[in-house]
Amino acid sequence: MTLRLGDTVPDFTQNSTEGEISLYDWAGDSWVVLFSHPADFTPVCTTELGEVAKLKPEFEKRNVKVLALSVDDVDSHKGWLGDINETQKTTVNYPILADPDKKVSDLYDMIHPNALNTLTIRTVFIIDPNKKLRLNFTYPASTGRNFDEILRVIDSLQLTDNYQVATPVNWKDGDDCVVVPSIKDPEELKAKFPKGYEEIKPYLRMTPQPNK
Ligand code: BEZ
């Protein structure tokens, strides 16, 4: 199934290291980061899952739940957890879906056979509380992901959902934002951006981050 930004993501029920998970019920009113890795007991994946455990408070601050997945079974995941905890000096504190029947992997198109045969590659799905897909990306097996970037995107999505701004190149929380070009009325601009804005070009207007 090809999922595109703005699509409602499919629900599923699948087993995990924390018992059976039905995505919609489990997510509730939270955002979700669903991410796949190729296989348990592999080096890059070990570092990634450890990093996500360390970042859990940052995800929680943003009302985000994290959910990992590979096609290994629950016993394999549970056996691997000890290695992640030991080597990455953390405690994995979120569920890892077990997808040996590839139910979720197929539903979310996480297996790209020309890249990695029958294993899931490194996909990321950011899902909002309305169960809409807000971002997805795919990394090759040989490249570990940057989860700080995933937090940065969530900050941008949550900000731009609430204010009529966009975030420019390399933006991070606290930096100036772009005023959306559709607002042209000076009174509306004054009301919506009380901190003011700088007009560099008529289509390029910068304003301090509205919620800071
Ligand atoms: C890894 O996690 O290190 C890995 C997994 C599958 C293929 C290549 C690397």
Describe the structure in your own words.
With 212 residues, the protein is an alpha+beta fold. The chain folds into 2 domains: 133 residues, Glutaredoxin (3-Layer(aba) Sandwich), CATH 3.40.30; 45 residues, Antioxidant, Horf6, Chain A, domain2 (Antioxidant, Horf6, Chain A, domain 2). A 5-stranded mixed β-sheet has the order 5-4-3-6-7, with helices on one face. It has a 4-stranded antiparallel β-sheet with strand order 8-9-11-10, covered by helices on one side. A two-stranded antiparallel ribbon has the order 1-2. Helix 2 links the parallel strand 3 and strand 4. Helix 2 packs across helix 3. The N and C termini lie far apart (40 Å). Benzoic acid (BEZ) binds next to helix 2.
